[in-house]
Amino acid sequence: MNDFLISIGLEVHVQLKTKTKMFCSCAVDPESPPNTNICPVCTGQPGVLPVKNEEAVLLGIRAGLALNCKIEKFSVFARKNYFYPDLPKAYQISQYELPVASGGYIKAGGKKIRLVRAHLEEDAGKLLHAIGSEEVDGSLVDLNRCGTPLLEIVSEPDIDSPQLAFDYLKSLRRLMRYAGISDCDMEKGSLRCDCNISIRRCEDEPLGVKAEIKNMNSFKELKDAAAYEIERQKKLLDSGGKVVQETRLWNSSKGKTFSMRSKEEASDYRYFPDPDLKPIYVSGEMLEIEKAGLPELPGAVKERFMNQGLTEYQADILTDEKVLADYFDKIIAGLTPDGQEEAANIVISNLLAEANQSNLPLDAFLNSVKPAYICELVKFRQEGKINKQVLKTIFPKMIKEQKAPRELIKDVNIVSDESEIVKLVEDAIRANASSWEDYRAGKEKASGRIVSHVMKESRGAADPATVMRILKRMAGE
Amino acid sequence: MSVKENIRACIAKIKGDRTNSFIEVFEERALAQSEKIDALLAAGDESLILAGAPVALKDNMVIKGETASCSSKILEGFVSPYDAEVVTRLEKAGAVIIGRTNMDEFAMGSSTETSAFGVTRNPLDLDRVPGGSSGGSAAAVAGGLVPYSLGSDTGGSIRQPASFCGICGMKPTYGAVSRYGLIAFASSLDQIGPFAKDMASIEKIFNVLAGKDDKDETSCEIDREILRKKKIVCGIPKEFSGSSPEVQELFNKAVKKLSAEFEIEDVSLPSTEYAVSIYYIIAPSEASSNLSRFDGIRYGFRAEAANLAETYFKTRGEGFGDEVKRRIMLGAFALSSGYYDAYYMKALKVRRLIKDEFDRAFQKADVIISPTSPRTAFKLGEITDPLSLYMQDVYTIPANMAGLPAVSIPCGKCDDGLPAGFQIMAPRKQDSFLIDTAKKIEEIFKGE
User: Domains in chain A, ordered, with CATH?
Assistant: First the structure.
């Protein structure tokens, strides 16, 4: 009926890539058996005290820089008090009034999404409900995750569509991975996202009442949940109803959100500065060191690739993962500038296709392919020594057998002698006389029959580009 | 006499104690440690500062493999999986940790009457309280059971019982002694400190305990160099004037004795008028959070319950005593949204004022002196109104608010025959200077 303005804000938790926990020296390792990475501190024994993990604090500062935030000279840890069996101290150490970073923005979908803040905190443990099971009949708690360092990144409600929410989260993930702050693996829980959604009829109205959506386990679920929630709120308002402030859970199998608790039931967390911890002081010097240590971020890499002559489409794909962008940089280091576009083609069409088929993570896969091999392939293509068909044939072999392309092309029937191709073209012209006449008369499309004749006769061993070049030359004579 | 024989004798004395100062004697642990010390001594090790000395610990400091309870039912059955930093330091110095002493539940009280293990009596008069909350540790030293004990002081819990029992007690600079392993009451105020019969003993054990600990971010190194002054200036805050007539008279006499060697000056600490009020916002606020972990899930007492919420309500309802519950409610209220600024934030601002006023006073005076407590030990059950009990800490709380080191030393007996303590406060980190000054004053008091 009416069009609504959509306002989405995301609260994203990323798990910082530290060896040890936020406030004790236990290892961070999600693969360990339950309750093996625990100590008196992270299990909240009486009398223990937290001690800040400097590595986590530095990652928080680095994240703030990558997110264009203002890094606060002075920030404070606060206690968020609530009772739950996965929270041993019955308070979570977080940051409240004075976070480590504030402001900032992330570029996504061609827009700048502003950030409210980024703050450090510790994760809770995990509950395992085994009610009715023979051995346990109750709930179990695993405190391995308890105390894992997290950074919460809160956006302004600048996101106006589920797609932009999706793009924002992708950009955020890419930034965090580039800067070495977090693996951001949603499946493993090192990236988690809550979504605040409200709608209103026009700009002049204040923001509508928001619902907070939790429990999205993938990028797609975020998009789906946001889309569902927007429709739900629209229908509600159109039918004269009101949106209530509440927390809703996304149920992916039903494709719907369900009310979890209303505002009235929400806890009063009784935040106050944690008296056990000293404030974080960031000196100008520390900030300069962190700034200097910040790696080239995806936006800058993409721009550089485009300045080097790649299309935006190519640059986007190549900068999606830092390992891939780094890999591409290694390839082009071994090429002249005019080989870059062909290199991008091979990486995108051949290499990534193989990567998808292998069951390896991208970084492990890339480690198994020598960049020098790709360089060789690019040169062969430039010299017209191999065509796309040949490339496709030898590519998997090159990876599987760990052989250089120059070894592999020996075994493949390749027509690289131009005089031979000229002969084939002449044969094809003879066999397709009318097409040849049409082509000479200016019908570009008529060349198709001739080229395909050559390809068929050579059993795919001729390079179509070379064939076209010869054909053109003959037509011009 | 070997350490082991000495420790056996000490244990026997504790078993005959009529004050109920101990909750438990760590016989096995103490004998094992004494054997170790005997062996070291036999091997000629002369480095152990506290070789073989029995030390009693207030029941809020944890020892690996031993029970710790904070004198509360809620910690029933809790055995610590780790050692408090003070335990490590004491044992390294050759001390023998002999047992845990009674206290007000979670250190909340000034009389050791809120313990779940019964009251502790004052060895000087069994009908009277030993003070609190470290009443058991004070009574253990005063009763001659042990030469040393440790207490914790959040608002006077070492100094006031020292005063009531006629011994020395020291609350060091905030952070001078690691809090790691001290079961928290109010984290920004809590400080571990020693009891002994004289300042020389306090000095000895304090030097073992003090020093920065990487496990406690709030711990610090103190200034070990003793300031040398031609004539030490003692400041008397004019606001500390609410004592009972007999305590005031004893204090005035004590000051007179000092005036030959020390310069006496009036100082003013106007905001200390609010110290007790803000203490009862800050300490309960921190306590409400610190004591949340006692939820029946991982350790200690758990009430039978039908579901999770009931587990929390019943465990905490049955596990905590009235005074603890009162303070948790007070603190939870002060921190709740809508009240935080009016109470907690404002209290922090007043605390800042108190600190600043002390800083200014210390420009005029080298130490600040006062009675430790406005009165002498009261009778068991005599004060039941919580507010009257809270006012017992009016002279001791300011030092906690400002993080200052302070001692209480005996300065004689009042007309009622009961001792009263003499409090000396010094600037932050000047613990060594404070001890040195207290020793001089102690000499003067003894020399009468």
Answer: 5-286 (no CATH), 296-411 (no CATH), 418-476 (1.10.10.410)
